[in-house]
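WARN retry 2 of 3 for item q-0093 after timeout on previous attempt; input resubmitted unchanged.
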Amino acid sequence: MVREVNGALQLKDECTWTEEKQGLLQLVFENGKLIKEDSLTEIRERINRQL
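OK item q-0093 returned
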């Protein structure tokens, strides 16, 4: 599980499926199909928020 704590990314190993759903990772591909598509602008904005 990846989560944000006090502005820093934190990893947690051996979590439950419920905990994983609350994390920052999102499903992008499922069975070879694109589920979520982000534009380059959206990705850059997300990166800039982290800096």
